[in-house]
Amino acid sequence: MSGQTLTDRIAAAQYTLTGSEVSRAVCKATTHEQTAPKKKHLEYLIQATQDSNVNVPQMGDTLMERVGNASWVVVFKALITTHHLMVHGNERFLQFLASRNTLFNLSNFLDKTGSHGYDMSTFIRRYSRYLNEKAFAYRQMSFDFGRVKKGADGAMRTMSVEKLLKGMPILQSQIDSLLDFEVHPKDLNNGVINACFLLLFKDLIKLYACYNDGIINLLEKFFQMKRSQCKDGLEIYKRFLTRMTRVSEFFKIAEQVGIDKNDIPELTQAPESLLESLETHLNTLEGKKP
Fold this sequence. Notes:
Layout: H1 6-17, H2 21-29, H3 39-50, H4 56-67, H5 72-88, H6 91-99, H7 114-141, H8 161-179, H9 191-221, H10 227-256, H11 272-285
């Protein structure tokens, strides 16, 4: 179904009557139209999160209501709008989401109206798990991996060993849930899922930069760590190596669907000898003979 439906118009009109412009904008961003949420509605909502007079919990609750819709289009667009606000909105929106005991419970979501509904429902279930993980990571770390400073004097490069060993598995879980979206070029066949993929792609670039920073920090500190820390650090590094293949596959799909090659980071593989020297060091600490 394309275009705004009568239901969309009624939902928006109800909020106009109750005087909630923010809730009306949420409805306008999450219509039954099979296109990405309109830029003007997203920009209005981003601006609203900056306004101290705006009730952020009410905005979040309206988005949750839309996520409870039966149509895959409305639900997908509500998740995309939420994701957009998590990235571009005021941090208090993210804080509100992270403070909720449950966020999106869509593990059984299924729109049975046609084969398209079935296919898209799979991606909605995966996408909602990622957004849950993104909010959970914020709750655990008290910052968003996507927003923190990157590079030599960035958050992950200057973190203490203790915080790093706690933070890296949380970051790995968020990256895993993003990669579990497992989309192929043929699946990117409508404006809604394409908008979602672009947000995930941009998130992955930022998460990968954090991940890389964390690994550099880990390697710099590895030979001064205690034995138990080295053991945890080595596991984190091994998991990093296996994830690189999956990150690379995701970036290949981005290239295949027309994302500019210059926007895609180049991944450099660490030499095998580095892993061997880390393992040798841990074995020495554990008193094992080479």
